[in-house]
Design a protein that fits this description.
350 residues; mainly alpha; globular
Length: 350
């Protein structure tokens, strides 16, 4: 089978985006841990990242020629987009708290539990039913996260709790972002920009009250530079993720996402040199394998729901021995009526 130059070019482009996504995500995870170790203000790190999305996205959208989105339906913004912006900020803060309190490798292992929250939330709030294979694929994820938690040397309850809550928040964002894109017809990069901008504006007063009075004494040129680089990497990570999702099938993206998580965990273990045990690594591996099987089961389920039968089954005639109708019951004899006769004539003829 011959492969065209266009297919080779497209494949090369996808591979390049994947590699760039892995590198940027790994650097973002390691840099975030480095910053929070010296500058323990998760809300400030989150504000810098959201502000980066709000500032860097408009020029890129203009270069890419992404259509503008204008609407007068402000009720929908309050109903859907504002809660999504709230969830984005809160989940990001909780994610940074988890990275601050526990190793990056363990935090990303806990984040592998997102399919569990996705299934539960979609079942409780949307009434979505899944097949047995999807529910079965959640078992290794649960066991993997449990084993990684029990064997984690640098375990902290606050780190685990914040990681679980952040994962639940990101699951909510994933579910309802798809609904928002479907209802509004908005471009996915435009939605990313709007959520980042709205979240930054909404929580700027909160940041002024909580973190702003504390950071001047601890903020220096090195920390400021690291914060700016971290914000830029976070923005690039989101852009690459959305671009890859647009180019490949959902299953390919899911596999790439699992591979990205492996890359982030591996790079953090190598560069940050977190102490781990064989049992801990086994738990991480089991959770990631569970995520892969979940994505595979979910993809097969979606395909089966979209596939229609080619032809309708032919109705079989009822066998003679099951047909209890007699000839007399099938034939009904009625008196013929001449519709051209008036009612009075009809009475006289009778």
């Amino acid at each position: 089978m011959s492969v065209s130059k266009t297919e080779v070019k497209e494949f090369t482009r996808i591979v390049f985006i994947c590699i760039a996504w892995y590198i940027v995500s790994s650097c973002n995870g390691v840099l975030g841990k480095t910053i929070l170790s010296q500058f323990p203000y998760p809300m400030t790190v989150t504000m810098v990242q959201l502000t980066s999305i709000a500032l860097w996205s408009p020029p890129l959208l203009k270069v890419l020629g992404v259509r503008s989105y204008e609407t007068s339906n402000w009720s929908y913004h309050f109903k859907m987009l504002f809660p999504l912006a709230f969830a984005k900020f809160l989940s990001s803060v909780l994610a940074h708290i988890s990275i601050w309190k526990v190793p990056v490798s363990y935090a990303h292992t806990v984040k592998a539990s997102m399919p569990i929250f996705t299934v539960l939330i979609s079942r409780i709030f949307l009434g979505t039913m899944h097949g047995f294979s999807v529910y079965l694929s959640l078992v290794p994820i649960v066991f993997g996260v449990a084993v990684a938690t029990v064997s984690e040397i640098s375990f902290e309850l606050m780190g685990l709790t914040s990681a679980l809550l952040a994962t639940a928040g990101f699951a909510v964002i994933t579910i309802y972002s798809k609904m928002a894109l479907k209802d509004t017809g908005m471009h996915h990069l435009r939605l990313l920009h709007k959520l980042g901008m709205m979240a930054a504006i909404m929580f700027f007063p909160v940041w002024l009250l909580i973190d702003a009075p504390k950071i001047p004494s601890e903020l220096n040129s090195d920390i400021l530079t690291l914060l700016l680089v971290d914000g830029c990497l976070h923005w690039m990570q989101n852009i690459l993720a959305f671009t890859l999702l647009k180019l490949v099938t959902p299953l390919t993206y899911a596999v790439a996402n699992v591979t990205k998580r492996i890359a982030v965990i591996s790079v953090s273990l190598l560069l940050l040199k977190n102490p781990v045990t064989a049992t801990n690594l086994g738990g991480m591996f089991l959770a990631i394998v569970g995520v892969f099987f979940y994505n595979r089961a979910k993809y097969n389920e979606n395909i089966s729901q979209k596939t229609l039968p080619i032809s309708m089954p032919k109705a079989q005639p009822t066998p003679l021995w099951k047909n209890h109708m007699t000839f007399e019951s099938k034939v009904h004899v009625t008196t013929p009526i001449n519709h051209f006769l008036a009612d009075s004539d009809l009475k006289r003829t009778q």
